[in-house]
Amino acid sequence: MGDLQHKLANLVVAGRTRDLPATKAFFTDSNLPLSGDATIIGRSIVIHDDKAPKHRGNRMACTAVRRKYRHKAVAREWFGNGVPPPLEGRLEFVEDTGMSVTHTLVELRGLGGEAGGYHVHQVPVQPMLEFPCTGEAVGGHYNPWQLNKTDAMAAGATPDSYQVGDLSGKYGALDKEKSVKEVHNDTSLPMFGLHSIIGRSIVVHKKRRGERWACSSIGWGWDPDEAKQVTAIASFHHPNGYAWGYIRFSQVVYNDGSSTDTIIQIRLKHPGKTNRDQTFGHDWEVYVNPVGIDATIKHQAARCTAGGYRWNPTFIQLADPQDHGFYSEQCSRRVPLRCEVGHLTGRHGKINIGANAHVFNDPNLNFYGDWFHTALGKSIVVKDKNGLPLACATIEPDKDIIKYAKIKTLSGFNLAVFMEEVQAVMGVPDWFLFTDSRETKVLHEGRCLQVLLHFRGPHANKLEQDFSRLLRTGRLDGPSLAIPGFISSTRLKLPYRECGQDSKSKKLQELTFSSSSSSLPLLPCLLLTLLALLEHL
After folding, report:
1. Which run of H or of E encompasses 525?
2. Is domain 71-220 given the CATH code 3.30.870.10 in the classification?
3. Which of 231, 304, 333, 381 has the fewest CB atoms below 10 angstroms from its CB?
4. How far is CA 151 from CA 140, 154, 167, 169, in A?
């Protein structure tokens, strides 16, 4: 059953991309099952080399046979552009393979006859923004083929006549609709490969003046019984570093070891709160080791040296490994598997710092398995125009803990200022600790404010605990994030308190603290504490 050579034919392996057409073949095999007891899924394919030298053996290459799952995505968490929208519902997208039709479900309620067009936009929503749907926040229409938008398309035009992200152009606008439930088959809405829409966003416009009304990120969809989502982040938050921001990764991994592509989101700027500098054409690569204090060394030749060298787990050689000219000819976005796994520039192109955000879809960057096969624990190195390391960060797991908090509002209380002060005291950037702009509520006649907080990053649990302690006691013993080579001089006190702390609970805290720190015998201290507890109850 596994003797494909004699059942079908020998294969041709191209040494250069110009010879790739000769390698293409199509076979039909009536005795190669993908299900049942004799399935080949979970086994391997081995390619033999009939001209191999004896010392190497004739096995040229091998790979596991994995099930190819469909890609599913959904947009359902809606954010208003300054005002919470009445919009509810979802958009779902399903594509079976990279060459099949995408099935789109549009199910929206609460439109009230006010909606107009709706589109896929370039980058995902940032939930901490007050105006998360603006052009600066989510970019323009997703239009990878650079099609010109026309005022009116001819009747019966095929989906490829429109921009990829122009859903209302392909499916019809939402004009005068109060609710809608439709299913569409779209031949121009890719969910596999370099031009995937996953990880981007949906924006619904108002009919009047085309205002941006609501937006939602397009995230992975999967069944928790058969898969899990793996997320990771390379955070550039060192105060003495040379870039500020993050690179986030997300991938769905199935229980049988199969996986989806990896979505990469890049938001990087130059350090400084008001720094608006923009630089273009930066190489970016995955290196084999994590980085530390070397990320902030001023001498560039010594910067990021702990990262080691570019990650190449599949041993891409392409003849002479020192012939960089030949490698650069063969590695490209058109043939990404001829690039080293860590060579992200080769597969996706160069990136910008301080300009627009990026979203990429990578079919060859994994975040599961052992150290040899996963990008977790390795590092991202961004280079300058001369090819020297500019900035670097370690790739770590990205958790997300959600928690409600009630804050006692002082005179002139401002939520944005409150969050900046909390982030400064805890020593964390805003992408590790932020509020969900939809969930802020005023309580107790304006004396309290309820907010929904996201604690993210590899140390999300510690951030959540430190925030609770900070709001309860008003101080921390040290910053929440330990940054190699940096000692914070920021104050560690916060003038805000948790809403609901009455005078008795404050008295209890003061009494307990003073008793434990006094020179009284242990038993009287315990009795005092017990009496205080009984009085409080």
Report:
1. helix 522-536
2. no
3. 333
4. 17, 10, 15, 10
